[in-house]
Amino acid sequence: MRFIAFFLCAFAFAAQPVAAASSPNLSSLEQQLGALVANKSADVGVAAIDLNTGETVSIKGNTPFPMASTVKVAIAALYLAQVDNGRRSLDDTIEGKSARSLMARMLIHSDNIATDTLLRDLGGPTAVENWLHDNGVTGLRVDRTIAQLLHSKRDLWDRRDSSTPVAMVDLLRRIYKAELIKPDSRNYLLDLMSQCQTGKNRIKAMLPGVPIEHKTGTLDGLADDVGFITMPDGRRVAVAIFTRGGSNRPQTIAETARAIYDGFKSIFAWPFGGPTLSTAQ
């Protein structure tokens, strides 16, 4: 019996998710990010991946954080996956509005009513959760509608409707690589994310002129931003930055995004002396 108990315990330990690890080339960036977030009062989780090379960096990469409105990326991806397989169309009318207009309102203006309208049409949070699970996206949970989330008692450590930074960048990676949706749908989604009107003081704030497609999330005591940063040579880096508690959360996101941009740029230097950015004031 002792041997069986030991074996089961060892198996359970082995089955635990492997801790997020940064690529060796990005060890200095990991140290810089670690020092940056250690000096902040907020609890910060970060993950980023170069979509060409697979180089990654993370801080608290396997720690769940509330997604807030960043979940809208997953909802949009599921709807577009069903457009791809012919089950739905962007020209469908849902509760008197076209799916195309609802998608734009959801991703550009973070409209919660538009989001829940699309979510109901898809079959609710369970439909999104099942689709992610079926496609191997783990570490990301969808439990409630936006209305339910907003009316629930605020708990920034609630595992419901949460994602780890690593899981979010994995979702972004799969979207970009056209593993979850077709290239045309991917391009449509990224175009909408490039028009995002919320959170201009987050990922974008210290990267003037850099092409960025992103989606923010905000609750009382919480600020998130996830998306894609384009490097000078055209490579994209998928980024997820989650912050809860403390103060100056948008500024923390801005500084973290800038450090990620500079860190990834330094290890894959622009070969022809391309443009550099000055830090925004």
What does this protein look like?
The chain starts with a helix and ends in a 14-residue tail after the last helix. The strands form 3 sheets. Strands 2-1-9-8-7 form a 5-stranded antiparallel beta sheet, sandwiched between helices. A hairpin with a 2-residue loop joins β4 (93-94) and β5 (97-98). Helix content is 42%, strand content 16%. α2 (27-38) packs antiparallel against α10 (249-267), α3 (72-84) packs across α5 (112-122) and α4 packs across α5 (112-122). The model is unreliable at 1-19 and 270-281 (pLDDT under 50). The protein is built from 10 helices and 9 strands.
What is the name of the CATH class?
Alpha Beta
Q: Which blocks of ≥5 consecutive residues have pLDDT under 50? A: 1-19, 270-281
Amino- and carboxy-terminal Cα gap: 66 Å
Q: What best-fitting shape do the alpha-carbon axes yield?
A: globular
Instruction: Estimate percent helicity.
Output: 40-55%
Rg, alpha carbons: 19 Å
Count of spatially separate domains: 1
| Side-by-side strand order of the widest sheet | 2-1-9-8-7
Q: Under CATH, the topology is which?
A: Beta-lactamase
Q: What is the overall number of helices? A: 10
Oligomer: single chain
Class from secondary-structure proportions:
alpha+beta
CATH 2nd-level architecture: 3-Layer(aba) Sandwich
SSE ordering: HHEEEHEEHHHHEHHEEEH
CATH superfamily: DD-peptidase/beta-lactamase superfamily
